[in-house]
Known about the structure:
2 copies of one chain form a homodimer.
Chain A: E1 4-6, E2 11-14, H1 22-27, E3 32-36, H2 41-44, H3 47-57, E4 61-65, H4 74-87, E5 91-96, H5 98-110, H6 119-122, E6 133-137, E7 149-154, E8 159-164, E9 172-175, H7 185-203, H8 211-233, H9 238-250, H10 266-277, H11 281-296, H12 302-313, H13 321-339, H14 356-364, H15 376-385
Parallel strand pairs in A: 2-9, 3-4, 3-5, 5-6, 6-9
Antiparallel strand pairs in A: 7-8
Helix pairs in contact in A: 4-5, 7-8, 7-9, 7-11, 8-9, 8-12, 10-11, 10-14, 11-13, 11-15, 12-13, 14-15
Amino acid sequence: MRDFVYNIPTKVYFGKDQFSHLGEEVRSFGDKVLLTYGGGSIKRSGLYDRVMEELRKAGMQVWELSGIEPNPRHTSVQKGADICKEHDIDVILAVGGGSVIDASKYMAAGRYYDGDVWDFHGKMIPIEKAMPIVTVLTIAATGSEMDGTGVITNMDLHIKKGRAHPLLYPKVSFLDPTLTYSVSKYQTACGAADIFSHTQETYFAREDGMYFLDTVMEGLMRTVIKYSTVALKEPDNYEARANLMWASSWGINGFVRADKPFPWSCHPLEHELSAFYDITHGLGLAILTPRWMRHVLSEKTLGRFVKYAVNVWGVDESLPAWEIAEKGIECTEKWLYEDLGLTDNLTALGINEEHLETMAERVGGKIHKGFVDLSKEDCLAIYKACL
Amino acid sequence: MRDFVYNIPTKVYFGKDQFSHLGEEVRSFGDKVLLTYGGGSIKRSGLYDRVMEELRKAGMQVWELSGIEPNPRHTSVQKGADICKEHDIDVILAVGGGSVIDASKYMAAGRYYDGDVWDFHGKMIPIEKAMPIVTVLTIAATGSEMDGTGVITNMDLHIKKGRAHPLLYPKVSFLDPTLTYSVSKYQTACGAADIFSHTQETYFAREDGMYFLDTVMEGLMRTVIKYSTVALKEPDNYEARANLMWASSWGINGFVRADKPFPWSCHPLEHELSAFYDITHGLGLAILTPRWMRHVLSEKTLGRFVKYAVNVWGVDESLPAWEIAEKGIECTEKWLYEDLGLTDNLTALGINEEHLETMAERVGGKIHKGFVDLSKEDCLAIYKACL
Lengths: 387, 387
């Protein structure tokens, strides 16, 4: 068990009647706000008007940046950082899902950097200061509302990359499950796959960690499995949306990862997929995860697979160990591809062998000291199994 | 499911090699520190010297207040608040268990109040400002290291009372499981009963809450049950001490209680016991809890008892519901009185019927809107069942 520092400063207003606190919280950081959002669904849903009304009541001056992409581009981030510099903005209010929040984190840091925001990756310039961020979450998926990580994409270089820093935690997040009633079945399923993956990637680590945190992760995975299927059948089931939303935050905010600071596997594999094909992150994870599981299952890793199958899926622990492990993977596949209805292969997405070698080359060395080290050949085999 | 605000700002250094950060963290709040501790065990263990060395290296001026009682008296709190006022102290460093930390919280608030600190209870004067507190935890039990609650006792009035306020959360806490190796078997058992009770009191609530949080609470209780017995057999088992320590913080820091802000039952019953007889809090809870369970078990509450028995104790869910519930209570008793070896009745502690009526009178009305409302008669019946 390793030492760790727990430090999650985000304050969260959770529930359906918390919106009246939005103005006072944003206002506590100053009177100039940059409102960031995506493609305009918040205008159709009426959320935009509700947010503007609260900001108006709080006496805020509002600038806007819309059109942030699902895999947010560094070019959009640059625009936001430039607006913040030009108008000396005090606080960013990100209204949307993980993409809008992730992009806003880089704007918050970029506001204090006189150069291209991609330098945070390309040149790994240090993050020394960042503006405060307040978020209103509209989809349960990435957990960006309560973590210090942002992922952005440079489509020119085909690079999708994340970076974490304590200064990037949102100061305040508003989590209203009713805002996710209108999330489509497809996006709900992809979000669930993403939340599940965050937890599962930490759960499958090369060292056993604290038992207590394992029980929390098992509970998180059972929660996502149980309520994702409910939310697909009943999009406005509050209990389902609330459980998914709070699970999205706790799967990745650092709490369960405490003593297991090891590299993940499926996320780096997926980032290459998104960088080349711009596919939905959760869908990429859903296609990759069971293939990765089969690839790394061995006598050495069997114990963790057995624990997973028994404690997450309720597989009968009196069966032979290999049979238990296999059933755990089968349950995962059934949930992802049948219950959630997600596509189970890359070919159906129009992806062929063309770039797989390059992707495997780029990601191979990175998954060192993960659950199982993956060479270029391992990565290529996993990608090919996904076709 | 109810709306809630999540706001736990405490930063935690967890592990066996984190002590080198103590000086810098304390120093970040100023250069005058009041060091508070209990009966002197930290001197015998060498912890006092280690703390002083870190404070010296950080250039701190140190004042001391020792002798804080296991059920801390308001008189000790007053002394601490007065020292802070007189010397314009910047920060309190509490080294000890829940009693030292609880007392320090009231000193931190009392430093800004020109009157008797008992007024925080007697007159319910508002808490508007409090000094920063840093803690070094030496026993896993109350969770005070990561919550905003303090409980102090006025022995003149026989009142033991708690109060919570966001300003009372410690800013930084150091949780080193090795510091609890020397905790006696008895105190380890009482601490485990306390951690268990915090979780169990939230778990048994009058409304069902978020499923995800129920899974966390079930994991917390399983963790305490599993590792308390390990720690009794092997006091220097790091895994056991670490699991108990982190569970102590998360059982009560507000996370699992989020959407269940209902009054507890056994804690108010126990506070009367401690106020009259100065017994160890965890022991009082251990004696009370199973009696309370039997008293409130009914057709109406059966469902929660079944869930508890199956998910915490692994009772066979194919049995009849009442049998499952009964087995859950029996498992609780076996763990508390056999595995932990705690006394199972008040008579053995020299307590008789004398004050029970008064205690029941005082606590009866308070447990309104708890899991089951308890009248004076209910409380008296529970106390008598403990004799």
